[in-house]
Design a protein that fits this description.
mainly alpha, Rna Polymerase Sigma Factor, Chain: A
């Protein structure tokens, strides 16, 4: 690490290495999540550790929670500054943002999907309680039919047939609704 060349004493090097090992991965994750660009996030983290190396003597006098707060405050500020710089650059060159790339067709598709989800939810709510619970466990918890059967004190074949029957009811409900 080139940063260690900036440090004078062994104590400073040990402290810097400890901070780097402890925070580098989390800092990169934070910066990447905020900037949505891995290269920019790496640059920000490098800048932060350069700043930490330059001010290592201040950190020697701090306790551990204060050091952590200091490091992440620098990271937050550098990330915000980089985001502002990138945003200003995009505005200057006219590069479209994600919001600019959303088409009216995308908005319409999302609205239709939302309505369909509401209709399915309304129909599922009218089903018997045990069917709703089995459907919930099958769709959202990723349990196997055997595991669901143990929860409801029934057989795996019973769960499988209930799920097949519910799918058929939902399909028939929507096919009948389209004919109307």
């Amino acid at each position: 690490m080139l940063f260690l060349l900036m440090l004078d004493t062994e104590e400073e090097k040990i402290l810097f290495q400890t901070l780097y090992d402890k925070h580098a991965a989390r800092m990169l994750f934070y910066a990447q999540r905020r900037l949505k660009d891995h290269g920019a996030a790496e640059e920000v983290v490098q800048d932060v550790f350069f700043k930490i190396a330059a001010n290592i003597r201040i950190l020697l006098d701090m306790d551990e929670p204060s050091r952590d707060y200091y490091c992440f405050t620098i990271l937050r500020r550098h990330t915000i500054n980089r985001w502002k710089k990138d945003t200003a650059y995009r505005e200057r060159i006219g590069k479209p943002t994600k919001e600019d790339r959303i088409s009216p067709e995308d908005i319409e598709r999302k609205a239709i999907l939302s309505e369909e989800v509401k209709r399915v939810a309304g129909y599922v709510a009218s089903m018997p309680e045990i069917d709703r619970q089995i459907l919930y466990y099958a769709l959202f918890t990723r349990l196997t039919n055997r595991q669901i059967a143990r929860l409801f004190d029934t057989t795996a074949n019973g769960v499988r047939s209930r799920l097949k029957r519910m799918r058929g009811k939902i399909r028939n409900y929507f096919q009948g609704e389209r004919k109307k």
